């Protein structure tokens, strides 16, 4: 972003309603009843939703209706279901503690070496975006390295040295769920206390005065311990996303153990989600500029969500395929592969176009031409005026969030790999559609407050959000 500090003071008296734009930037300062109701609903029901999905696989072969029917018809009581659920075990607690500790060690103590030999990869110390208080944080980008080391050790431990079985994750899936919940609640509670008593940057904190809202949406913008342990970067990427591919591998190993083969649908889910995960780590530096890091505060939504929601619900397709080993026809498998790769291509190219455009300040080529854009400006908390650009070329000229459209196409491919017998594996596409549509509206609301009339000019130039001509 182009900052012109010398002009900052001069602009302080501008007619711009600075206070209003400060108030709207980032998450809300005041809570309306709808947000509060949604938050209370999520706080109460999100953990139950996760439990219900995992339990229905373990006890009802992934049927989402059978548990309800059993309860309604009096065949079973809640206590029967609960009593059949594995409890927290010592073994799971040890596995989980070692796992998280190992990820902390990889994150904190092993500076990135991948960027030294992988051409095009951006790692090592990188800067995040400017925060509302005008701070620019530094991050050690070493997620790709952590992913590689973890996976090499996984293959060595399971296949060469046979320290443990690759089915270890599946075999402890529910006891590990309790551990993930403990960490998720502990870290969110700690983040809230920290926000009140020892914030990393007091100017980047937001208090609504509503306990539930603050707990859910977070108080601190970028909570840190010491100079380098950044809560958002750590919990968003590791342990959840590093675990994603290991979880899928463990599900594939379970299929092999139970049925003597790994189905093509399981391979597709492993490959397509593996590409998504690797893409995330390859582009971890870019991730510093996404909404999670640039705008969201760190609360239960990110803390618990990263520990529990992501690893348990994003991997439902693999879990489902353990209980229902679907072997797809070649045509069906190729169709899904094409959809998954096409979705990924759109997702990556759209994100890449914006990244390139912003990094070069518009001095680049998009689809062989100089990009077109709308000049815009905004003001930070200290009254400094900043300038920015909104691109209207490439995929960004097709729709305002075509990256989400690509993401959704890829997500649909994972679900379609599971056939049409049950709704459970389709949870992901339903959830992603709600998440990304909500995110799109949230982002647009914020951008509109941030850029004001410039945003209006942009939406006039690119009128659709996700699908040109439709929405
Ligand atoms: P974007 O990468 O779309 O970032 C939105 C921001 O980009 C806006 O706030 C604005 O920021 C800037 N911007 C908007 N329009 C333009 C434009 N025309 N030209 C230049 N800059 C523009 O959103 P996210 O951070 O949400 O998503 C990043 C990726 O992560 C997406 O592909 C998404 O699909 C994926 N994702 C995946 C999730 C998952 O759970 N699997 C969850 C969330 C995201 P500024 O203030 O700088 O102008």
UniProtKB/TrEMBL annotation:
Belongs to the ERG4/ERG24 family. InterPro entries: ERG24_DHCR-like, Sterol_reductase_CS. One of its GO terms (molecular function) is 7-dehydrocholesterol reductase activity. The gene is Dhcr7. It holds the Pfam family ERG4_ERG24. The chain crosses the membrane at residues 33-54, 88-110, 144-164, 176-197, 298-316, 328-347, 411-436. Keywords: Cholesterol biosynthesis, Cholesterol metabolism, Endoplasmic reticulum, Lipid biosynthesis, Lipid metabolism, Membrane, NADP, Oxidoreductase, Steroid biosynthesis, Steroid metabolism, Sterol biosynthesis, Sterol metabolism, Transmembrane, Transmembrane helix. One of its GO terms (biological process) is cholesterol biosynthetic process. This is 7-dehydrocholesterol reductase. It comes from Catharus fuscescens. It comes from the Eukaryota. Its EC number is 1.3.1.21.
């Amino acid at each position: 972003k182009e900052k012109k500090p010398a002009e900052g003071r001069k602009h302080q008296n501008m007619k711009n309603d600075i206070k209003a734009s400060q108030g709207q930037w980032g998450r809300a300062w005041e809570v309306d009843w709808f947000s509060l109701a949604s938050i209370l609903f999520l706080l109460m029901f999100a953990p139950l939703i996760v439990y219900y999905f995992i339990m229905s696989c373990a006890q009802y072969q992934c049927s989402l209706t059978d548990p309800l029917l059993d309860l309604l018809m009096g065949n079973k009581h809640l206590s029967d279901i609960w009593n059949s659920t594995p409890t927290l075990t010592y073994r799971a607690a040890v596995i989980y503690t070692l796992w998280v500790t190992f990820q902390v060690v990889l994150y904190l103590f092993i500076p990135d070496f991948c960027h030294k030999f992988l051409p095009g990869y951006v790692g090592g110390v990188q800067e995040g975006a400017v925060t509302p208080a005008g701070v620019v944080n530094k991050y050690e980008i070493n997620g790709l390295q952590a992913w590689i080391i973890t996976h090499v050790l996984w293959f060595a431990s399971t296949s060469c040295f046979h320290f443990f079985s690759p089915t270890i994750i599946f075999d402890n899936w529910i006891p590990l769920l309790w551990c993930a919940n403990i960490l998720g609640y502990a870290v969110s509670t700690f983040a809230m206390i920290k926000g009140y008593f020892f914030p990393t940057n007091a100017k980047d904190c937001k208090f609504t005065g509503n306990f539930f809202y603050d707990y859910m949406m977070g108080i601190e913008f970028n909570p840190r311990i010491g100079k380098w342990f950044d809560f958002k970067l750590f919990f968003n990427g590791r342990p959840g996303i590093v675990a994603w591919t290991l979880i899928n591998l463990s599900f594939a190993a379970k299929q092999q153990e139970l049925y003597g083969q790994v189905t093509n649908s399981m391979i597709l889910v492993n490959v397509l989600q593996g590409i998504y995960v690797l893409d995330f780590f390859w582009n971890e530096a870019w991730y510093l500029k996404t909404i999670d890091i640039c705008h969201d505060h760190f609360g239960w939504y990110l803390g618990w969500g990263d520990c529990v929601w992501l690893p348990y619900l994003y991997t439902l397709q693999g879990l489902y395929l353990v209980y229902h080993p679907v072997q797809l026809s070649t045509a069906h498998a190729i169709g899904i592969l094409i959809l998954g790769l096409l979705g990924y291509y759109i997702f990556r190219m759209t994100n890449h176009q914006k990244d390139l455009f912003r990094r070069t300040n518009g001095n680049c080529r998009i689809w062989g031409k100089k990009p077109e854009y709308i000049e815009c400006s905004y003001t930070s908390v200290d009254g400094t005026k900043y300038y920015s650009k909104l691109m209207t070329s490439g995929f960004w000229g097709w729709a305002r969030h075509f990256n989400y459209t690509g993401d959704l196409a890829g997500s649909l491919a994972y679900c379609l790999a599971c056939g049409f017998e049950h709704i459970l594996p389709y949870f992901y596409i339903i959830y992603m559609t709600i998440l990304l549509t909500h995110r799109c509206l949230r982002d647009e609301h914020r951008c509109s407050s941030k850029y004001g009339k410039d945003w209006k000019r942009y939406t006039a130039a690119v009128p659709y959000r996700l699908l040109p001509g439709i929405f």
